[in-house]
């Protein structure tokens, strides 16, 4: 099988700063070596797949508990300290058990529809915050670096759903406890982005480590962060990540003591049903928060950027909202199917900027892919960025054309393997419906309230890989009141 050798990879990644360009390297290597190629790192290798049908074949052949990457050292660390893993890092039977509990409450659109009201309260605060921020600018309209704002929105939104409480991220004066919480999370995000959530990248790191190119395995770096981070040290008492879970537990206890019925969302269900241990609940709440904030905020930032750059698309979206929902009607989850264009905007945004440009799988049986025998236990890298930009899969692939998703019921197809930003199958993103709810409702209300325009302060924004696919520079946009 063709592919880059160790020397070439060292040159590409270290000399030419390839870690920030993983998405481009996928495309480049696909052009050079074909849709299936083997990257060598010393004695180890990764097989990369950049073909829609081959990706489909791999994902359709998955067993009961698919594995993204070899997590042995991570697992050993958790075992050593008696700490529970969350869904992202768990494997085998433990993963199956947790997934089957968590999926009951958040995997279907109707499961998350109940959170519309809570998310809308957060969006009302987001809009207030936009008014405050733009009033501080000379033109009275610009918000600089919208991702900062959307980070706070996503954190507040996801916490509202997961912890069933508000953090105050969008207030003018953020509560001190929340400031500390955001700081702890930011530290973890920076570690997390280059490790757990970027399996494609972590395979590269692990292989480099195996080839003794790195002094320490990457996991050790993350393990150190875990030890020193106040947030993720789940078992050590009074930490910010636990406070919200513990508060909920106390509230439930007091309701029970008073003979009241207990109702609530996911966290309440987990605490009452006791299907997961408290340690597992802490671990999963933290991992879901980590997995859910940056992904959602980057996607929202890219969507706003694309809409600002394409006023004609934005106008069509606005007209659809005005005609099918109403100019001032606050949307809820069941309004979203009436607005196919807003759904298409999200799908097209994620095609052009898939937050996870690549994903990993360890094969659980021998497979023949593209004519090659791939033995059980091989680390695969699924090159979603490359398939998203392939002209074979999407005509005029470089252009933002949300309407392409409106044809032939494309919106509801989950099996368009050219663009699967949330993954596919049993190990796909468990937070997909939460992310969609937060993004759809926010986009609808932002477009109802504002005409979103490119600010003269905005340079063209290119993507860079920092674990996730992130905006390479700050996105500044003008939020003009809609007349
Ligand atoms: C636009 C937003 C998001 C995108 C694009 C995204 C994408 C992904 C992808 C590609 C995976 C890997 C799937 C696979 O291996 O097949 C994943 C896994 C995961 N995501 Fe998301 N995600 C998003 C938001 C969220 C949110 C909001 C949450 C939680 C509230 C979340 C929680 C998770 C978890 C826990 C996993 C691991 C699932 C498992 O291993 O069983 N994600 N996500």
Automatic annotation (TrEMBL):
Subcellular location: Membrane
Positions that bind heme: 429
Keyword set includes Membrane: yes
Gene Ontology MF terms: heme binding; iron ion binding; monooxygenase activity; oxidoreductase activity, acting on paired donors, with incorporation or reduction of molecular oxygen
Pfam families for the chain: p450
Cofactors named for this entry: heme
GO BP annotation list: C21-steroid hormone biosynthetic process; cellular response to peptide hormone stimulus; cholesterol metabolic process; cortisol metabolic process; glucocorticoid biosynthetic process
GO cellular component: mitochondrial inner membrane
UniProt keyword list: Heme, Iron, Membrane, Metal-binding, Monooxygenase, Oxidoreductase
Keyword Transmembrane helix assigned: no
Annotated family: Belongs to the cytochrome P450 family.
Protein name: Cytochrome P450 27C1
Organism of derivation: Hirundo rustica rustica
């Amino acid at each position: 099988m063709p592919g880059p050798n160790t020397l070439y990879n060292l040159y590409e990644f270290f000399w030419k700063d390839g870690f920030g360009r993983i998405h481009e390297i996928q495309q480049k290597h696909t052009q050079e070596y074909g849709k299936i190629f083997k990257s060598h790192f010393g004695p180890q290798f990764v097989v990369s797949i950049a073909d829609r049908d081959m990706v489909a074949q791999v994902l359709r052949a998955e067993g009961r508990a698919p594995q993204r990457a070899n997590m042995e050292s991570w697992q050993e660390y958790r075992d050593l300290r008696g700490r529970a893993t969350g869904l992202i890092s768990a494997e085998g039977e433990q993963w199956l058990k947790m997934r089957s509990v968590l999926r009951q409450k958040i995997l279907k659109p109707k499961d998350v529809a109940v959170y519309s009201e809570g998310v809308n309260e957060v969006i009302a605060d987001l809009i207030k915050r936009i008014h405050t921020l733009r009033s501080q600018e000379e033109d009275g309209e610009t918000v600089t670096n919208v991702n900062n704002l959307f980070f706070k929105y996503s954190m507040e939104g996801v916490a509202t759903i997961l912890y069933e409480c508000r953090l105050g991220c969008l207030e003018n004066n953020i509560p001190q406890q929340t400031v500390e919480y955001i700081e702890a999370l930011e530290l973890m995000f920076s570690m997390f982005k280059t490790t757990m959530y970027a399996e494609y990248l972590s395979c590269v790191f692990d292989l480099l480590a195996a080839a003794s190119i790195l002094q320490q395995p990457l996991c050790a770096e993350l393990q150190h962060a875990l030890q020193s981070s106040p947030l993720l040290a789940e078992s050590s008492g009074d930490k910010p990540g636990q406070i919200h879970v513990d508060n909920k537990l106390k509230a439930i206890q007091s309701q029970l003591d008073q003979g009241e019925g207990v109702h609530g969302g996911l966290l309440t269900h987990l605490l009452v049903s006791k299907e997961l241990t408290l340690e597992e609940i802490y671990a999963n709440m933290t991992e879901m928060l980590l997995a859910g904030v940056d992904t959602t905020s980057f996607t929202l930032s890219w969507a706003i950027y694309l809409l600002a750059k394409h006023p004609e698309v934005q106008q069509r979206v606005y007209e659809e909202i005005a005609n099918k929902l109403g100019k001032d009607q606050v949307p809820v989850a069941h309004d979203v199917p009436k607005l196919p264009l807003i759904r298409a905007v999200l799908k097209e945004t994620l095609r052009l900027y898939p937050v996870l440009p690549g994903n990993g799988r360890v094969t659980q049986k021998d497979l023949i892919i593209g004519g090659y025998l791939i033995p059980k236990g091989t680390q695969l890298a699924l090159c979603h960025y490359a398939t998203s930009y392939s002209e074979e899969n999407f005509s005029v692939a470089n252009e933002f054309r949300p309407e392409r998703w409106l044809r032939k019921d494309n919106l509801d197809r989950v099996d368009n393997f050219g663009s699967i930003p949330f993954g596919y199958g049993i190990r796909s993103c468990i937070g997909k419906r939460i992310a969609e709810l937060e993004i759809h409702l926010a986009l609808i209300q932002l477009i109802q309230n504002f005409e979103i325009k490119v600010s003269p302060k905005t340079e063209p924004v290119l993507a860079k890989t920092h674990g996730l696919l992130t905006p390479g520079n700050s996105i500044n946009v003008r939020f003009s009141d809609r007349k």
